[in-house]
Design brief:
767 residues; 4 domains; seven-stranded mixed beta sheet; Beta-lactamase; 37% helix; Penicillin-binding protein 2a (Domain 2); alpha+beta
Length: 767
């Protein structure tokens, strides 16, 4: 019995032990499986919490916060007189949040109708955008001005609307539109400077954007103000240029007139610099463009051609548009290389004098084409522009007459080594370093040409500005050295940088690079340049009351081909002037690229243009005119005020050089033409009306005066009741001084008494 019980207990014990063993094994398997299962999770947690901690932290922050950029205000660009040339204005992007509109049950039709009316957009477009209820940002209109933004705010308030927002943004604005466009440059849609000063000083102007970081709830709504962090924007510094907007206006005005008058195909370039400092007062490249709409083509003819190509669906449209844009944006005054032609003769003369290779008492006999110079290595002889020759000339007269054979002779005297030394010294072999982007270098001969036996042929023509290319800024800078005592100055456009409070951060000082020629040589060359304008090829640059010096230039473009691959006959005509020559203050360089109307030369086209520029600029910068007796006797005179006088009283009071005509049977003057204070040519006939009924709306036709003498023009205008204001070369002697341009087109109907400005030039001048 006892044994059976023990056996039975043993069986139970065995079963228990088996169960325990199974349990232990099960637990072991579960533990092992659990451990195995948690290994990937642990690895994943390790990756999330340790390896990719920064990544997931950033994602969490982005989900829990909202960031808004606070744009830094871009610095202002001023001219030298603190006139604003470029500034930033606040505008607004109007957008809706369809998600919010749906949540607050906003009437989409009301929103569409109101915004369409205020913003001038299509109501249907607004309705379509309001259907994107998953979106919180649908732009309705960009760049809305302040007044329009206020109307949108009023509309929101009046109708207690939700889901309509105005997002502040800044837009670059250029108050003077196209003035100094290539100098100032412009910014892209992202506010980054792309051209001109906007590009070269982008880091200075742009500042540093700020940031607003706000905590959001689970729905993405911004929480209370206390959960926001502000990182202030740092506004950009402002820039003051050496450019004078008034001088710039005069330069562009007269270059534009020259382009129209002379049919200039490829635009014009001009630079006005202070001779002593190298400061650039004005710099222009025409045709220009509107900085506020920089992608539009400014040249009307080019724009018309592109519009036609676009309408035709031409494949050329896109490439030609891009090419036209790049061309109008380029600052050609520093990027164009060209043969300077005879304007370079003043440089050659200065080398000749500085090296004591010629005396002022020296003479040179020019026989014209019949006695042309023949030089080894050159197939064609070097001939003078004046076919009959200049005959016997003094050293100064060879410059005044722009005599090519004389300067070829001077070049050979100077020699290759000395010539190259002065090219380097005047800055022609390197860039000027002007603080503008895109400056080009010059183009000279290859070493194998210089080292050849026949280089004398190149040297001879180089002496009068051919077979090499320089930039306008290089020539203008060299002329400053000729005028200021021989000091080559570094040209600059940026005068100073100002912080937000107006304090000076940086300031540019005039930099002397080196002295190229002596002060004595400088004075002698200036005297010679004045002779060029008094009696030589630059005669048409004369300005009554001022002493002007300068040199003309005409150069062929030997690498310009037409659409058929043929070499064109295009020329560059130019004038480099200094004024006043007895106390040089400014240098003015004018270049017209490929004129087509009339005889193309620097003397007949560029010099008159420079004269017109000097006429406006010199009085503006405070240079007082001093008139000779001869000039006083030929100057225009102001008409007095004779209304209310009797005819006899007016006759005694009026300027002795005026005549008059009486219209009416009375004795007392009740009206007059021209109006009192009007400047008109001496010898004009004033019209005195002695009855209440005067000329009224009488219209007359402007005649064509181009090509006629001053006396003929005055007589013709007097006959029909118009008046003449004279500019340019004023002379009644000889037949070579004639009208070159007139301010009102021939055939135009104008009121009786209208004043027509006529510019006279001497057509008997050289290049």
């Amino acid at each position: 019995m006892a044994n059976n019980k023990r056996k039975k207990l043993s069986a139970e014990e065995s079963e228990n032990r088996l169960n325990q063993m199974i349990l232990r094994r099960t637990l072991f398997v579960l533990i092992v499986c659990g451990i195995v299962a948690f290994i990937p999770l642990t690895v994943k947690l390790f990756q999330v919490m340790i390896v990719n901690h920064d990544k997931y932290e950033t994602m969490a922050v982005e989900q829990q916060t909202k960031e808004r950029t606070v744009r830094a205000e871009r610095g202002t660009i001023y001219d030298r007189n603190m006139n604003i040339l470029a500034t930033s204005i606040t505008e607004y992007n109007v957008f809706i949040s369809p998600n919010e509109m749906e949540e607050y049950d906003v009437d989409a039709g009301l929103v569409a109708q109101g915004l369409a009316e205020i913003l001038g957009v299509e109501e249907g477009d607004v309705l379509e955008k309001s259907k994107h209820t998953e979106s919180m940002y649908q732009v309705i209109k960009k760049k809305v001005d302040q007044d329009t933004g206020d109307l949108v705010r009023a509309f929101i308030t009046e109708n207690e609307l939700r889901g309509i927002y105005l997002e502040a943004t800044t837009t670059r604005y250029y108050p003077y539109s196209s003035l100094a466009a290539q100098v100032i440059g412009f910014t892209g849609t992202d506010g980054y400077g792309l051209y001109g000063v906007e590009a070269s000083l982008n880091e200075t102007l742009e500042g540093t954007d700020g940031l607003i970081v706000t905590i959001t709830d689970e729905r993405g709504n911004e929480m209370l103000f206390k959960y926001s962090n502000y990182y202030d924007a740092v506004d950009g510094d402002s820039v003051v240029l050496t450019i004078d907007s008034t001088v710039q206006y005069y330069l562009e005005k007269h270059l534009s007139q020259a382009v129209a008058d002379y049919g200039v195909k490829n635009g014009a370039m001009g630079i006005i610099m202070e001779a002593d400092t190298g400061e650039v007062l004005a710099m222009a490249s025409l045709e220009s463009f509107d900085l506020n709409n920089y992608q539009a083509i400014g040249d009307e003819k080019v724009a018309e051609k592109l519009a036609q190509l676009k309408e035709e669906g031409s494949e050329e449209y896109a490439s030609l548009l891009g090419q036209a844009q790049l061309e109008q944006w380029a600052n050609k005054a520093i990027t164009t290389t060209y043969e300077p032609g005879s304007t370079f003769k003043a440089i050659t003369m200065s080398i000749l004098l500085e090296e004591d290779l010629a005396q002022q008492s020296e003479h040179f006999f020019c026989t014209g084409n019949t006695g042309s110079m023949h030089i080894a290595g050159r197939e064609d002889p070097i001939s003078c522009w004046k076919k009959t020759g200049h005959g016997d000339q003094s050293l100064a007269e060879t410059l005044a007459n722009s005599c090519n054979p004389a300067f070829a002779n001077y070049g050979l005297r100077i020699g290759t080594e000395t010539f190259f030394d002065y090219l380097e010294s005047f800055g022609f072999r390197s860039t000027t370093g002007v603080d503008m982007p895109g400056e080009s270098g010059s183009i000279f001969w290859a070493d194998e040409i210089v080292d050849s036996y026949y280089f004398d042929a190149s040297l001879a023509v180089a002496a009068f500005g051919q077979t090499f290319k320089i930039t306008p800024i290089q020539l203008a800078t060299a002329y400053c050295a000729l005028a200021n005592g021989g000091y080559l100055m570094k040209p600059y456009v940026v005068d100073k940088v100002l912080d937000a409070e107006g304090g000076v951060v940086e300031e540019t000082s005039p930099t002397v690079i080196r002295q190229v020629i002596s002060e004595e040589t400088s004075r002698t060359v200036c005297d010679m340049l004045e002779l060029v304008v008094k009696k030589g090829s630059g005669k048409n640059a004369q300005v009554s009351g001022y002493r002007i010096g300068g040199k003309t230039g005409t150069s062929e473009q030997m690498d310009v081909y037409d659409e058929n691959g043929n070499l064109t006959e295009d020329v560059m005509v130019s004038f480099a002037g200094v004024a006043p020559i007895d106390d040089p203050q400014i240098v003015c360089l004018v270049i017209l690229d490929s004129p087509t109307n009339g005889y193309s030369s620097g003397g007949t086209m560029a010099a008159p243009t420079a004269s017109a520029i000097f006429e406006d600029v010199l009085p503006y910068i405070g240079v007082e005119a001093v008139f000779s007796d001869e000039q006083l006797n030929s100057m225009d005179v102001e008409a007095g005020d004779y209304v209310g006088m009797t005819i006899s009283e007016a006759n005694e009071a009026m300027h002795e050089s005026f005549n008059y005509k009486i219209i009416g049977s009375g004795n007392v003057i009740v009206d007059q033409l021209p109006a009192p204070g009007t400047e008109i040519a001496q010898g004009s006939y004033l019209l005195f009306f002695t009855e209440e009924e005067n000329a009224g709306e009488t219209m007359v036709t402007v005649p064509n005066m181009v090509g006629y003498s001053q006396a003929w023009c005055l007589r013709e205008l007097n006959y029909i009741g118009l008046y003449m204001k004279t500019t340019g070369v004023i002379s009644t002697e000889g037949s070579t001084v004639t009208a070159s341009t007139q301010s009102i087109e021939p055939g135009t109907q104008v009121p009786l008494g209208t004043v027509v400005t006529v510019r006279f030039v001497d057509s008997n001048v050289g290049d």
